[in-house]
Structure formats: C-alpha cells, structure tokens
C-alpha cells in the first residue's frame, strides 16, 4: 500500500485530502501544517509520496521541496490553487525536485476537491512510482549547445516534436535551453499539465531558450525559431503546412489515453501534414501516450528519440515507445539536445 504524507496549512484541506486518499486505498501515515514540519516528518515516517501545498507559513512548499530533496529525496506532488502566483511557484517547486502538480479546483480552500477524488488518487499513485532522484541526474542547462568551428549547416525547415508527462517540465526546459537558434526548428511541445499551468510553462520556456515560445491558440502559425506549447485540456493538431510554416488547430475531441492534450494527436498529425524533416522525442512520464506518435513519425521518415530509464522520473512513456521498435536512439536527458541537433546537420 502506498504511504503518503499530506502537507497543507489548512486543517480542513488536510482532512479532505486525507479522507480522499484513505478512501482510494492510500495509507496517510501523517500530516503536516507547514514546510518545517514536512521536512522533519519526511525523515521520521519515510513516506512513499508527499502531497505538498504551495503557500504555507514558516516554510513554503518551494523551500520544503528543496530541503526534502537535499536531505531525504521523496516523490512530491504539488497541490496548487488555480492562480497565476501558485502556477509560477509550482513550476519553481518542480525545478527544485517536485515530480508533478495537481490543481486544486475551486481555490486554496477547496470545497470541490472531493469531486475530483479519482484523479487525485491516480496522481498520487503515479508520483509515488516516480524516481525522486532522476532529476538530480539530469544536467540542467539553459545554454545553447556550442557549435563546432565554422558555421554549422542544417537541413531546411526542420520540426521538433516533444512529448512529456510526469517529471517532464525540467527536461523539456533543459532541451530547449540547449537548442541552438541556428538550427531553426519549428517546435511543438506537448506536456501533460493542467490548463492553468501551460501558459506559465510556455513563458518559462520562452525565457530560458533562444526560441520564441508561446502557448498555442487555435489557428496559431509558426516558422523557424518559434515554438508552441499545447494548451492544457486541448488537443493540438497540425492542420496545415506550407513552405516551412505550420499551423495548428486546437480542439476538445475525446481524450486519448485518458489525457488531453495527447502526444499522439500532435505527433500523428505532424507526420501526416509535414513533408520536411521531423524529429520526435518522448520523455519521462506515466502511460502509453506517444508510442503511436513515434510510430507515425518513424513511418514518415522522421528521426525518433527517447529518454533513458536512468534519467526518467517515470519510464512508462519512453518504454512504451521503445517497445514499438521505432525509436532510433535512447539517451540520457542531458544528451538529447545534442542528438536532436546532430540529426538535422547536413552531411559533409
């Protein structure tokens, strides 16, 4: 049975979360009212997973996450209110080592959380299965890959497709941060993430990379040096492509693999519409999303890569893609940007 520590400064929320987890077959071994208590109790009870509030007195969720990862690495699920401030703080906590996030419906003191019991239990179980130290084995880089002597020559009009889930945001950021602008990719990112977070994630990627990254809108168009992050709760499909410029369409069609946006939807539509070079990468995450997309990109003549098990918080998505036999290379997270770039260099 999964053992959880519930951390929230609201007694009401601690009770609600604990009851939901107990009913879902998760053993809540203890609770904490702030980050200071959380750090101590993680060492005392050694839980399989921690649900962590963001805003708390004495020590907030970001600080507590950093302390726990330094002293007693444990999978952490951030429970965040649906506010811009909490979204930014949650992304920062994930940078410090938190594995994933779950958005509290209805605000900080949520009376609506019980209506999302099944999703919360699933999220806690998924995070409990993650390797909390995987992120520390990823060499985070926000510096573009240096080019060899002389100007590198790349193929024309390449498109990069990135799909990720649990544990993915930091890896996505490290890849885009190391991607040389001269490669002139069109970039499409599908990160399983609540819809209140994808706009903040896109802004974070925009700041840390040489590419112009934005959250996708219906009808968005991009050219070389630009990228889109799929909006939470919307599938992102490539709907048109001409002369190196692509267009996307957003829709709320049925979830695929129980998720929306789905990696497969974006990759399959890209493989169908884009005639120029494609590179597809699947990263850490739970589930099977991305396997069919990798098959489609490979079938269209594209290059396919997957993150390795050692640096994946959860190896589900990469493993399922590898099992298709359509992945060209399996690499550590900190080697992916170079492999992506190398795949579009012109032969000398």
Shape: elongated
CATH class of the largest domain: Alpha Beta
Count of strand segments: 15
Strand content: 15-25%
Give the ordered list of helices and strands. Answer: EHEHEHEHEHEHEHEEEEEHEHEHEH
Spatial order of strands in the largest sheet: 8-10-7-6-13-14-15
Q: N-to-C terminal Cα separation, in Å? A: 57 Å
Q: What would you call the structural class? A: alpha/beta
Question: Quick one: biggest sheet?
Answer: 7 strands, parallel
- Give Rg in angstroms: 20 Å
How many distinct folded domains?
2
**Helix count?**
11
CATH topology of the largest domain: Rossmann fold
Say which CATH homologous superfamily of the largest domain is assigned.
Methylesterase CheB, C-terminal domain
Look at the structure and give the mean pLDDT. Answer: 92
Which residues form runs of ≥5 with pLDDT under 50? none
CATH hierarchy: architecture of the largest domain:
3-Layer(aba) Sandwich
Task: Offer a quick outline of the entry.
By secondary structure, this protein is of the alpha/beta class. Helices cover 34% and strands 22% of the residues.
